[in-house]
Write a structure and sequence with these properties.
The protein has 140 residues and is of the alpha/beta class. It is 44% helix and 27% strand. The protein contains 6 helices and 5 strands, in the order E-H-E-H-H-E-H-E-H-H-E. A 5-stranded parallel beta sheet has the order 3-2-1-4-5, sandwiched between helices. It comes from Oceanimonas baumannii.
């Protein structure tokens, strides 16, 4: 059983969210907490990033935070609710940094089907698996 679990969610893979939460609830210690994290890579990897206004980014963050909050309220029992965070940066680096900061014992994350780009560069989940200081469960 794990006391601190981090779920880095990607709303592009909502079809895997139920499996991720189910796994977290099964593996969560009775006194454990489940933290939700969304990493927005748009400032880092998007060609139009220099043209994003601060107001647009703030609205985007608010919308994502509301979506995460609704997800938390719907899927995570009160006694297991941890932190809810929206961060900006390189996805795998941010996940690893937050996992370390929150002293999590387990990261559970969805994985997409590999495409040509992941064969060359590696997916976020594979980078997290290779570099995490804690256990990682990848749900496909």
């Amino acid at each position: 059983m794990f006391k601190e679990i981090l779920l880095p969610l990607d709303f592009e893979h909502e079809n895997l969210s139920a499996q991720v939460v189910e796994s977290a609830l099964q593996l969560c210690h009775p006194e454990g907490r489940i933290h939700l994290l969304y990493v927005n890579p748009s400032r880092v990897h998007h060609a139009a990033a220099p043209f994003y206004s601060k107001e647009l980014l703030e609205k985007q963050d608010e919308a994502i935070r509301a979506q995460l909050d609704e997800f938390m309220q719907t899927h995570i029992p009160d006694e297991h609710r941890g932190r809810l965070e929206v961060r900006h940066g390189v996805v795998y680096d941010t996940i690893l940094a937050r996992a370390k900061k929150l002293a999590v014992n387990l990261i559970i994350m969805p994985a997409s089907r590999p495409g040509a780009e992941t064969y060359l560069l590696g997916s976020n989940s594979s980078k997290v698996v290779r570099h995490a200081d804690c256990a990682v469960l990848v749900v496909r």
